[in-house]
Amino acid sequence: MSVSRRALMMGGLSALCLSLTGCYTVGLPDQPPLPDETFDYELAYAARKDGDFELPAINYKSFDRRFWRQVVDYKSGERPGTVVVDPYNAFLYWILTPSKALRYGVGVGKAGFAWSGDAQIRVKREWPIWRPPLEMIERKPALMKYWENGFEPGLKNPLGARAMDLWQGSRDTLYRIHGTNDPASIGKNVSSGCIRMWHQDVIDLFSRVPLRTKVVVLGKQEEAS
Question: CATH assignment of 39-222, given 2.40.440.10, 3.40.50.300, 1.10.3210.10, 3.30.450.20?
């Protein structure tokens, strides 16, 4: 039975069956099927309406294929359902089994290298308001105007279409997995920001991961091979 058909039969949960490792089902119900050999990238990265906003198409063919959304071989000691961020190779992995993961390309700012370790997704926001961190305001005082009321949701908002806020215990780390108003930044180290994804990809991830999902941000010595 194909992965996509089985996913539909199991209520949309992502299911991946491997002969040696068995079947694993992870994530939220009614999520989209996993990408497979018949996956339609033109449709996945096409222009689309999301809420009140019109998302532009992603010119994905201008990027290295490794940054396209795809299921890959990936050995991890983390449990299925965990998100692993490798900022040094510009990848985000959503663990499916001990040997498979759904991988997305990401862009990483200086803030994305500022810490490593474990966190949880404690807040998920659609078309979020953005308030610049105080450290960013110190570097760019003109951003102070967004501190009180925030930058309104929309395509120009630095957080883009979705944001997933990372917490450690009761503390908001102020680091986010979020969309981007600069699609060309995927696969690159950019001047500011945390972990950024194409709108279509962050919406896809958002539809899969529940609150309290564990997120592991790798340090330099741990970067994936």
Answer: 2.40.440.10
Are the C-beta atoms of 100 and 14 separated by less than 8 Å? no
**112 has pLDDT over 70:** no
Maximum alpha-carbon separation in the chain: 57
Active site positions, annotated: 178, 194
- Encode pLDDT of 40-59 as tens digits: 999 999 999 999 999 999 99
**Confidence (pTM):** 0.86
For the chain, give every domain's residue range: 39-222
Residue whose pair of structure tokens reads 């039975």 in the numeric block: 1
Q: Quick count: other Cβ atoms within 10 Å of Cβ 209? A: 22
What would the pLDDT profile of 9-25 be if each residue is shown by its tens digit?
Answer: 334 455 565 433 445 57
